[in-house]
Amino acid sequence: MTRRPTTPASGPAAGADVSVPTLGRPKLPTEKPYTQKRLWRLAFGLALAVQLIAVYSPQGLVGPGITGLDKVVHVSIFFAPAVALLMMGIRARWALGILAVHAPVSELIQHFFLPHRSGDVFDALADLSGVALGWFAYVVWDRRHP
Q1: 3-state secondary structure of 72
Q2: Nearest to 77 by CA among 56, 97, 108
Q3: Are 124 and 107 in contact (CB under 8 A)?
């Protein structure tokens, strides 16, 4: 019986997979992705809480009277949950779809049901811009970190 010589391009030195087969057992998740997913869930929970407070508080959030700051807040409170949901692994059509529906619905609720608030079409557009920017940020990150 003759042995085939191994070349430097094959074998364990070349990075070939020499692990023991799992015999049909699922691979256990490593701690790093699990921890990351938990952190993104926490981030989503915090972002959602801030969003709901900002959108549905009876008086609205009070801040400095800087022109355009309201729109920046609207973009931000829809950007953060969008990114967090996508990073958690939720399908984009569900995550972005729900947030895209919530944007105009929240403005209608403010207009018709919250007496000291008024719905604004431009706020809804800022909300939708935040959803779109969240998706764009996730796509850019995902392509750079395969």
Answers
A1: helix
A2: 56
A3: yes
Q: Convert the pLDDT of each residue in 70-120 to its tens digit.
A: 899 999 999 999 999 999 999 999 999 999 999 999 999 999 999 888 889
For the segment 2-48, what is each residue's pLDDT rounded down to a tens digit? 555 555 555 555 555 555 555 555 555 555 677 888 999 999 999 99
Instruction: Quickly tell me which residue has 């709901």 as its tokens.
Output: 52
Query: Residues near 82 by Cβ (< 8 Å), separated by ≥ 6?
Result: 95, 96, 99, 130, 131, 133, 134, 135, 138
Answer yes or no: pTM beyond 0.90.
no
Name residues whose C-beta falls within 8 Å of residue 121's C-beta, 6 or more positions apart in sequence: 107
